[in-house]
């Protein structure tokens, strides 16, 4: 009995052991196959999202939102709402079902504009008590509710997104085809890149907005000379204040902010004549900046970087020294574009000096062809500054081909001499700028820029070497040799280009497309494209 009982137990254990062994042998291949499938099968995390397939980031934190997936749970990813802001301020929502944003190609510009961690790090959770990193337990059969994370965009965010798209369009146009234009299509060697300039100009026309501070009273503010060598101050102030295309009354929508003071009027009404004291002018500028900084948030937000001043008076740079950030950060539009005195071409704008004695260009435009110009080079003017005495010392009454005069002979017309000359000499005076540059262009005379530190107007767009001659001060003795080395064929090409770029220096009321007013605005527009602002609020 004991033996039989022992035998049955032993048999049962042996039978169970045999069944377990068979089951184990059956399961091992299944486990191996399942493992291979899991390893070799598709991985949903590695697949890039459809809309953000080209998003690029340097680290895992540079995407719009990233979520960690809960271990040992069914991986249910939250939907991530990405706002793509187009030029018209509309928000386009794209829902991504993936959180892996670390891909290699360049992001779409509308999306990239809202991805910078430093700039856009504030998100709003629909339900704050649910962490996106935790999958909540759902006891019912209803699919788990998934919170959406949505970015709250400020007007500044949208403004910067639009500028980012404009930058992209300009870069793309560099090597692209010409854009059609009913008025004018820039083309030729007079432009550094005609396609890029044209696209940039069109983008400016569509989007650029300027806010003009209304504080201040004439004659120092909202006023300026329009019939003198400083006429560009008054002309620009008057034109921008009357303009409905670029001026905005809503400062929140502005790309730049204009400080509407006239340095020329300060010299006339604030400066004490012959006192050599800049104090009153500096105090006027300082007080004005303090007022607008106290009333509006925009100056302090950018430390003045998106603000600009305009001055054609020689003391314009000195006036900008009144406020440290005005000099260091703001866009200074200056006739006195002297790099040896702190002018920075990447930040500041060279303003053409135009002497409108009557307030109009009537009678100033036009001149004969190259074959009808008998004088090689011409200059007439006073001994202002250090360069002109050197010019007169070497060439006054020395050569019939080089007509250099301190005073014109009686009965000789200054503008007729410009029209008779092939080259018009434009030496700097007390300051680097000279109205003779534009006078030469108006009359079809090839300008000869004689200066060492002068940045010519609109040089970010115009290739001055294609339609002018640049001569350093030390080469004044070799002036005739330099000009004679230019072949007749080359001169004809240069003179033709002078006529083609003339439209960019013409003053019109009301302004015309591509004229000097629009070119000044375009130069400011380009400087604004050079930096980005972000809202720290």
From TrEMBL:
Keywords carried by this UniProt record: Glycosyltransferase, Golgi apparatus, Membrane, Signal-anchor, Transferase, Transmembrane, Transmembrane helix
Exostosin GT47 domain ranges (all copies): 205-486
TM helices/strands, residue ranges: 21-41
Domain of life of the native organism: Eukaryota
UniProt GO cellular component terms: Golgi membrane
MF annotations from Gene Ontology: glycosyltransferase activity
Subcellular location: Golgi apparatus membrane
Topology in membrane: Single-pass type II membrane protein
Recorded family membership: Belongs to the glycosyltransferase 47 family.
Entry protein name: Probable glycosyltransferase At5g03795
UniProt source species: Abrus precatorius (Indian licorice)
């Amino acid at each position: 009995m004991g033996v039989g009982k022992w035998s049955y137990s032993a048999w049962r254990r042996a039978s169970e052991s045999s069944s377990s062994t068979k089951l184990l042998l059956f399961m091992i291949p299944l486990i191996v196959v399942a493992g291979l499938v899991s390893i070799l099968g598709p991985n949903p995390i590695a697949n890039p999202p459809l809309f953000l397939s080209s998003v690029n980031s340097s680290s895992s934190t540079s995407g719009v939102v990233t979520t960690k997936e809960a271990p040992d749970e069914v991986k249910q990813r939250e939907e991530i709402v990405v706002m793509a802001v187009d030029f018209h301020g509309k928000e386009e929502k794209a829902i991504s079902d993936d959180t892996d944003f670390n891909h290699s190609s360049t992001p779409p510009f509308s999306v990239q504009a809202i991805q910078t961690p430093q700039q856009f790090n504030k998100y709003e959770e629909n339900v704050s008590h649910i962490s996106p990193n935790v999958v909540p337990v759902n006891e019912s059969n209803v699919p788990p509710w998934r919170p959406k994370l949505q970015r709250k965009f400020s007007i500044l965010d949208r403004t910067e997104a639009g500028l980012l798209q404009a930058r992209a369009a300009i870069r793309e146009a560099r090597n692209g085809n010409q854009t059609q234009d009913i008025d004018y299509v820039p083309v030729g060697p007079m432009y550094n890149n005609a396609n890029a300039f044209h696209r940039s100009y069109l983008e400016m026309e569509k989007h650029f907005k300027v806010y003009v501070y209304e504080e201040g009273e004439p004659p120092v503010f909202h006023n300026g000379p329009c019939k003198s060598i400083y006429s560009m101050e008054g002309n620009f102030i008057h034109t921008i204040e009357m303009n409905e295309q670029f001026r905005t009354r809503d400062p929140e929508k502005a790309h730049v902010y204009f400080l509407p003071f006239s340095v020329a009027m300060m010299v006339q009404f604030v400066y004490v004549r012959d006192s050599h004291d800049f104090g009153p002018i500096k105090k006027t500028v300082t007080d004005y900046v303090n007022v607008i900084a106290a009333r509006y948030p925009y100056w302090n937000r950018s430390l003045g970087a998106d603000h600009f001043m305009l001055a054609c008076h020689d003391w314009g740079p000195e006036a900008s020294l009144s406020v440290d950030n005005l000099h260091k950060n703001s866009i200074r539009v200056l006739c006195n574009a002297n790099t040896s005195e702190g002018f920075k071409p990447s930040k500041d704008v060279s303003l053409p000096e135009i002497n409108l004695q009557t307030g109009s260009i009537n009678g100033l435009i036009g001149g004969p062809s190259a074959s009808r110009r008998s004088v090689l080079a011409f200059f007439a003017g006073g001994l202002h500054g250090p360069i002109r005495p050197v010019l007169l010392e070497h060439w006054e009454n020395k050569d019939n081909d080089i007509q250099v005069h301190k005073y014109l002979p009686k009965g000789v017309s200054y503008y007729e001499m410009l029209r008779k000359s092939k080259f018009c000499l434009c030496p700097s005076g007390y300051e680097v700028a000279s109205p003779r540059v534009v006078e030469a262009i108006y009359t079809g005379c090839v300008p000869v820029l004689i200066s060492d530190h002068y940045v010519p107007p609109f040089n970010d767009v115009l290739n001055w070497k294609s339609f002018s001659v640049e001569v350093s001060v030390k080469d004044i003795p070799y002036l005739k040799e330099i000009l004679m080395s230019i072949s007749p064929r080359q001169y004809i090409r240069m003179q033709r280009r002078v006529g083609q770029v003339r439209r960019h220096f013409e003053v019109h009321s009301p302004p015309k497309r591509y004229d000097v007013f629009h070119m000044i605005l375009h130069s400011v527009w380009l400087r604004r494209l050079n930096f980005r602002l972000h809202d720290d609020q």
